[in-house]
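FORM 12-B: Structure-to-Sequence Request
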């Protein structure tokens, strides 16, 4: 009865979903593509055999992590066909790079019984692999009815998400219990997932440690860094409100004794280093540029750089997708977006893989284990707020020895925690063949 009421509520919400997609498509046109797929209506012919391996990666970060699992599955299942689903435009765009001949990519079905049933009947997946956190009640129930084993891979669950799930236990517990298998990132994640009834089959580690940065982008970023007259700090994946915090910090003066630049008067934090701001969400690029321009600062957007060369400006704005390796290569150190507002922080593993040490705020609950591992290794540092983080980052990049030690620690961190995708692929194949 509870799930029936939930399904009715989601059915009634469909007109609102359509309007929201239309609004978002004004800034991100991909949201206007193939809208009917979200409700279980497809133009491609229905599958006649059950040989698709379905991977659901809701957004950009999950899609990047899914890439290493897909590569491992292809290596161990020759001729594998991939069905890739997403919920966001950034995920869908990134996912295109994973497709081969015979693969399919569609939107995740809206979680009504009818849409899920049409999705499963049309594609007939052999198995479903949900990345990280994407557990939807009707999707789980529909897979059980259709006989599709549905698994949660690279699974994580924060304390905050656990509390929210417990508040909706009448809906969430049957969903977690209905999964065929769960492979968690950490033992702490595993314990939280088990408390909801999830069938945790093992702790595999985090796929993101297996991802290799784009070598061309990384080299290009490092070459840019060598041309910079000052150290470069990147505010990576900044979230709403955090850029305003940084702007407040810019208003402070710093004494000459703390900076390695000979000038006649104290300068601002804004020009002590080169600042590179990379907002998390592309729809905010223009908003963030305006914020700094309204404060009287010159902003140069990456999309306007001539021949890839940063223009002279107070702020460089990373307004492109899929170039984080370039941005981390360009930077001497990073501030971790989402960790200074109570948003849980973004993933720092990609920064570490690029050899870019991180200064993070107090809110890292979304990636708690990775943050703890990085801090223990000396690849990341914790600040109480953004103002203190800026001071720490500037001190770090002005100390060559400390910076080199942090860079070495960041690279070593990624190498020490590889293998999760391979272990998970092997477990998935054992489940398929068992």
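FORM 12-B RESPONSE
SEQUENCE OUT:
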């Amino acid at each position: 009865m509870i799930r029936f009421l939930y399904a009715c509520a989601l059915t009634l919400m469909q007109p609102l979903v359509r309007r929201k997609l239309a609004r978002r498509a004004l800034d991100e046109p991909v949201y206007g593509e193939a809208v009917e797929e979200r409700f279980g209506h497809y133009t491609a012919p229905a599958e006649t055999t059950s040989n698709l391996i379905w991977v659901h990666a809701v957004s950009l970060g999950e899609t990047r992590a899914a890439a290493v699992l897909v590569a491992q599955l292809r290596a161990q299942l020759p001729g594998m066909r991939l069905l890739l689903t997403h919920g966001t435009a950034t995920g869908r765009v990134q996912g295109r790079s994973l497709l081969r001949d015979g693969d399919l990519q569609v939107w995740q079905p809206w979680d009504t019984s009818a849409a899920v049933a049409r999705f499963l009947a049309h594609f007939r997946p052999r198995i479903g692999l949900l990345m990280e956190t994407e557990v939807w009640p009707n999707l789980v129930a529909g897979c059980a009815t259709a006989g599709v084993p549905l698994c949660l891979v690279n699974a994580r669950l924060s304390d905050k998400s656990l509390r929210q799930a417990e508040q909706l236990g009448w809906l969430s517990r049957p969903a977690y219990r209905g999964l065929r298998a769960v492979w968690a990132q950490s033992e702490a994640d595993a314990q939280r997932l088990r408390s909801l009834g999830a069938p945790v089959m093992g702790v595999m580690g985090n796929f993101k440690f297996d991802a290799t940065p784009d070598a061309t982008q990384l080299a290009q970023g490092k070459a840019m860094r060598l041309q910079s007259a000052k150290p470069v700090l990147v505010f990576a994946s900044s979230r709403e409100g955090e850029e305003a915090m940084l702007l407040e910090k810019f208003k402070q003066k710093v004494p000459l004794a703390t900076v390695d630049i000979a000038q006649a008067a104290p300068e601002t934090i804004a020009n002590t280093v080169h600042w590179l701001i990379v907002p998390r969400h592309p729809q905010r690029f223009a908003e963030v540029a305006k914020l700094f321009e309204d404060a009287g600062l010159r902003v140069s957007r990456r999309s306007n750089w001539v021949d890839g060369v940063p223009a002279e400006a107070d702020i460089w704005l990373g307004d492109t997708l899929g170039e984080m390796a370039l941005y981390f290569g360009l930077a001497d150190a990073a501030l971790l977006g989402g960790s200074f507002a109570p948003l849980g922080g973004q993933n720092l593993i990609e920064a570490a893989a690029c050899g870019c040490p991180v200064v993070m705020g107090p809110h890292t609950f979304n990636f708690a284990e990775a943050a703890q591992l990085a801090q223990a290794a000396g690849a990341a540092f914790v600040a109480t707020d953004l103002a203190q983080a800026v001071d720490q980052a500037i001190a770090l990049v002005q100390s060559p020895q400390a910076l080199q030690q942090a860079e070495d620690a960041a690279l070593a961190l990624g190498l020490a925690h590889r293998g999760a995708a391979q272990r998970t692929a092997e477990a998935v194949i054992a489940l398929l063949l068992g």
